[in-house]
Amino acid sequence: MVSKEPAELTNEELLLEAKRLKPMKIMDAVLIGVLIGIATYSTVKNGAGLLSFLPLVYLPIAARNRIKLGKVEALLKERGLSCWLLAIGCWPLFG
User: Which among 39, 44, 65, 80 is placed 20 to 30 Å from 2, CA to CA?
Assistant: First the structure.
């Protein structure tokens, strides 16, 4: 699947993209926390080593996800759309 820029998406596609990206913020935070925990444990147990710098590998990925989510949220606001994330789906609210 070829991913489009957020500005090229229709309203429905934009709402679906927002629904897909929302949980990524929490997943990124949890994963970075786990990686920092592993790095801290490894540093305390074995001294500085390869695992000490493990969180630095994931930071660019998390930053890219955060930038994309910011663009999608800005476009939603610009187009006057909002989205309630319910268990049964994403319901667009206009106005």
Answer: 80
The answer as to whether 87 is a domain residue is no
Kindly report the pTM of this predicted structure. 0.71
Tokens 């070829």: give the residue. 2
Task: With respect to residue 76, please indicate whether it lies within any of the assigned structural domains.
Answer: yes
How far is it, in rounded angstroms, from Cα 71 to Cα 66? 9
Give pLDDT tens digits for 52-82: 888 889 999 999 989 998 898 888 888 887 7
Residue with tokens 């926390």: 33
The pLDDT tens digits for 31-58 are: 999 999 989 998 999 888 887 888 889 9
- The answer to whether position 48 is within a domain reads yes
